[in-house]
Amino acid sequence: MKNIISLILGGGRGTRLFPLTKYRSKPAVPFAAKYRLIDIPISNCLNSGLNQVYILTQFLSVSLHRHITSTYKFDTFAAGFVEALAAQQTLDSTDWYQGTADAVRQNLRYIQQRGIEYVLILSGDQLYRMDYRDMIKTHMDNDADVTIGTLPVPREDVSGFGVVKLDENGRVVEFAEKPQTEEDINHYRTSPEWLRSRGLEPRGREHLASMGIYLFRRDVLVDLLTRYEHTDFGKEVFPSSIASHHVQSHLFDGYWEDVGTIRSFMKANLDLTTENPPMALDTEEFRIFTRPRYLPPTRMAGAMITDSLIADGCTIGSGTVIENSVIGVRCRIGRDVTIRDSVVIGADYYESDQEFQRKSPTTPAVGIGERSVIQGAIIDKNCRIGRDVRIINDSVTEQKERDNVTICDGIVVCAKNTVLADGWKLGP
Predict the structure, then answer these.
(1) pLDDT in tens, 283-309
(2) How is domain 4-271 classified at the architecture level of CATH?
(3) Three-state secondary structure call for residue 310
(4) Which CATH number does 299-420 carry?
(5) 126, 146, 124: which is closest to 135 by C-alpha?
(6) Is 376 left (phi over 0), alpha (psi -120 to 50) or beta?
(7) What pLDDT, on a 0 to 100 scale, did the predictor assign at position 69?
(8) 3-state DSSP call for residue 312?
(9) Ranges for the Nucleotidyl transferase domain (predicted)?
(10) How far apart (Å, rounded) are the C-alpha atoms in residues 301 and 316?
């Protein structure tokens, strides 16, 4: 589809995902043992036949740029590209991106290329599988100016989303960003009968939320962003353009998760360890692409592993028990370790014996030391967890920080490069 360009928004500061975003942007956060969040929308694009992709970045974007450059390469004879565009000062603008619409506005020159008729705008921190060709068909069939991807959500979740009100043909007649009052929430209710007529079973979900996926006619998008100074699509662009443009809704009823908080990140990872995961990774139809690392197979010496994902290049010692957890690449786990309901992101490198010997005698090696216990925690990259360490939030504390270890939403998070000496314990 040479007449469509995809723009993936790299997101803001990612404060709700801190400390995972301490050294990286949200889309660069590792996910599911071997991927990064940005791999999801890029893979959806490539699987949908869309191979002209820009990623708009701003905060802590070095690792994201490195990942994109080393992963998504097109050969000389293959048309297409996946490129990262960093926020930059120009003669027209000297400011950082002020919102989703402003990010696109500051990069209009990249979509005003010859032959481009449509622009698909995506978020870089959502988990879902979607064939965008279905959304493009909805857009074409209805001769729309703008099409918004929408998802049915239960009433209790409405206040966290932009929601739409539709006419009988699925055209958006009203849009509200995160309605709070009972009156507003009731106003945006969608008839269960109408949802069923579109092949969607409500199951208590009678509101349609914006997924942050938008398809624009290129000329309409350029006009809206140059005529007005709107900075956000949900808060300003859609509410003001519905009266003057044909804004259509495209219904989606598959798995979709906004990974915006530590709790949602943890849940999305651990959901993949279940017997019937909501988003299966082992499918040929819609593969998730990422950087090839050429690592050796994981070696397990008498360990017991249940309902878990284990990436390549790991070594797991005898007597170790891993349950309902995600273990990332190059993870070295000692003997008699217990890991439950946790995400261990792994390491960027293997530490050689010579490198380890040069460090202080009290500094543990990269990985998880013998007899340590980790439960309900996220261990970021390159952490050095010593022997007999205990990481369990026994007191069910919601927020706390100590020794580069943070408790967020009741989940313990060890930031990247954290060092915990032998015998370190969290809790009373």
Answers:
(1) 888 899 999 999 999 999 999 999 999
(2) Alpha-Beta Complex (3.90)
(3) strand
(4) 2.160.10.10
(5) 146
(6) left
(7) 92
(8) coil
(9) 6-274
(10) 6
**C-alpha distances in Å from residue 319, one per residue of 121, 337, 345, 365:** 48, 7, 21, 19
- Going by C-beta distance under 8 Å and a sequence separation of 6 or more, which residues neighbour residue 343? 265, 266, 269, 270, 325, 326, 328, 377, 378, 379
Amino acid at 27: P
Average pLDDT, rounded, for the chain = 92
User: Which is nearest to 397 in space by CA: 406, 388, 389?
Assistant: 406
Helix count and strand count (H, E) for the chain: 11, 31
Whole-number Å distance between alpha carbons of 357 and 351: 10
**Cβ–Cβ < 8 Å for 336, 317:** yes
Q: Where are the domains of the chain?
A: 4-271, 299-420
Q: What is the dihedral of CA 330, 336, 337, 341, to 10 degrees?
A: 110
pLDDT by residue (tens digit) across 391-414? 998 777 777 888 889 998 889 999
Give the bridge partners for 428, in sequence order: none
Task: Decide if pLDDT at 160 tops 60.
Answer: yes
Tokens 């495209």 found at: 250
Amino acid at 287: R
